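note to self: dont lose this again. the chain is below, predicted strucutre after it. 80 aa total, dont forget to put it in the shared folder this time
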Amino acid sequence: YAIRLQSGNVEVREKGLYKSGTTFVSGDVFRIAVGAGVVNYYKNGTVFYISSTAPSTPLQASVAINSLGGTVSNAMIKAQ
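---
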């Protein structure tokens, strides 16, 4: 379960495959949440994609930043 951000575009990726997309601007907040056996992808608190793939555990977080000045803030894995 991944969100890829590049040049103002957002890609939802699962197992490396593109699933959905939207756009972003600086300051947008993204979240991937697992609850009741469903994976939801959020942009600024609103669901923009619901996965059709059941979640698998354990979950882990990973970040790669390839843009000068790019940041990730408040990243966490939290039990619901």
